[in-house]
Amino acid sequence: KTTNMPERPFDSENARKKQHAEQSNNELDENSPTNNNEQSGDEEDDDENQIKGNEEEDYQEDDDEETPDFTDDEYGSEFTDDYLCPELMAERPQEHESLNNVIIVDNLPKVDPAKLEKLKEVISKVYNKFGVCRNVYYPLDKDGKTKGYGFFEFQNEQMALEAVKQTDGYRLDKNHTFSVTLMSEFERLTQVPSEATDIGNLLSWLTEPDAVDQFAVQSDDPKKTMIYSNALSQPILLEERSKWTETDFVWSPKGTYLASFHEKGIALWGGKEFRQVQRFAHTGGVQHIDFSPCERYLVTTSARPGNSEAFIIWDVITGQKKRSFPVEQGSPYFK
User: What pTM was estimated for this model as a whole?
Assistant: First the structure.
């Protein structure tokens, strides 16, 4: 049996004071350094856990990236040499340095390995006087014998040009005369001319049994050129073409070629079917031409104001330009 004791008037007040004191102590404990350290430690633990979580996510994302397939032949094809080897490519020689500074010397003595150093010593005395020769190369055959030519790289283009000028045609001894050229001209020297088209006998008209000549007639309306064989009974038409020439035509002295005039130059025709044999580019409109008596050379003139090549002398066989001359004043003329 439980008996409820009557409440004392001062017991409630004492209880309130005790409760207030306990609450104040709890607040002090919460603000104490020790409690703060415990909270900071908890926060640091949370931060570390978050960082570890992020690292795990990043690592997982890296694993998800596609691994390059190195077995693919096209892998890396988009990478340039400058990208892969920037320092090495920065030191590469420029075209003007690697070509214009290098000369090729042909007709050197062919010597065996025992005499190679002596050859280098002799040749170096010839070329060291033109400047600093940075590199020298003598190609060798399978037996170690020189092939009769060499490459010489000078410090600059002026040295190389002077070496070509002074030693091209230089006679080392009675059996060896130098042939020297710039490396930049190597492509031109090694170009093999295309196989010429067989145009037949250029003098086929001389084999005509009756020994008749040929002559050409030009009409302006319409623009036609006709070539006839001057047969005994009446002329026989051999060839007729429209717009074969723009202004005029000229026979060569021996009748080997028929020259037609065009805005861009002169064309030569010959053979039994009058195919194009050669052409000479002389822009500006050619007014006059003349052949040498042997038909080996051709002179074309285009006397336009400011034309630095009013006269040009051509090699008929090769089509190469031999020389050119300007016109100071007046009209050009042949004498």
Answer: 0.43
